[in-house]
Specification:
Diaminopimelate Epimerase, Chain A, domain 1; 332 residues; binds manganese (II) ion; 2 domains; six-stranded mixed sheet; five-stranded parallel sheet; binds adenosine monophosphate; inorganic pyrophosphatase (n-terminal core)
Amino acid sequence: MSHTHVSDTLPVPPELKEILEDGENIAVITHVAPDGDAIGSMLGLVHLLRERGKVATPVCQDPAPYQVNWLPGVHEIQHVIPPDVDLLVSIDLSDVDRMGEPYDREAFGHLTLVNIDHHATNTLFGTVNWVEPRAVAACEMVYHMAQAFDWPMSTRVATYVLTGLLTDTRGLRTANVNARVLRVVTHLVELGAPIGEITELTFNRKPLSLIKLWALALPHLHVEPEGIIWTVITEAMRRESGHMEENDGGLVSFIASAEGMYVGVVFTEKEGTRVNISLRSRPGVDVSQVAFALGGGGHPQAAGATVEGTLDEVIPRVLQLLRESVRQQVGG
Ligand code: AMP
Ligand code: MN
Ligand code: MN
């Protein structure tokens, strides 16, 4: 094994400090159908800003998913941007449409928009853009920001930040976890973030309805000769299982872990008119570009998109794009 030194920090744009310090009434908004990193980074930043004396409001179109619904403060999340804000910050969000309904361009387009994100497919839609694909989570960026600005982190903020970092790395099990990330985790635990409790509540606890949904979806598993494994979640399966939350609870990562497979896909039917596509891949195969071509985005190993059409229309089209992409990347 080679020994590589990984820097402890990620660079933070110095102008960001002044922009945030100049704001008095700040909305922090994250993406529709939020994951743990979306909720953790938004609440973490909101509380950091409040601890600096700001009025700060967390905003998200949709409620927190079950993984993080135990976090203090999730019930404070607003579904609209307060009309009197003077600064907008978007976090964990790769394009402007991912803000969903709360972002009314007529009402808020004139405000400075700070775009803080770690997706390589980020479209740089902000007035100021801090996009850091080396960060394993938007939460990691919140951590480095607090460090760079000498803003002390409370146990509460450390808990939000660690929770989001752990969810985006599936409990430190993604290929991008390195010594820097482990040092960040160590520091957050030293600040009081209860790592055991976070793991228990976030990873070792699922709604029974979700297990039932997996049971309904797994019989529809398909394996393509190109090393693509996929299944479907229909509206009918969601009704039968009782799991209506927009969250596969890790089904796509589970099927993608099958040996010999390059890509895992879950197609989720949405109101019969759209399909949500969730993609995972092995290191060495990048699925973010196919997701981006479909109007979505993501990371090399985890990406997604929402496409207009029925399952019957969307599945063959997406599988074709994935076959071509896998062939190009792995040869053959
Ligand atoms: P998921 O499969 O929903 O866990 O999402 C995996 C990654 O893809 C996350 O980083 C998301 O931010 C990104 N992603 C998922 N769906 C979309 C979408 N509709 N548009 C843009 N990015 C997406
Ligand atoms: Mn996210
Ligand atoms: Mn993220």
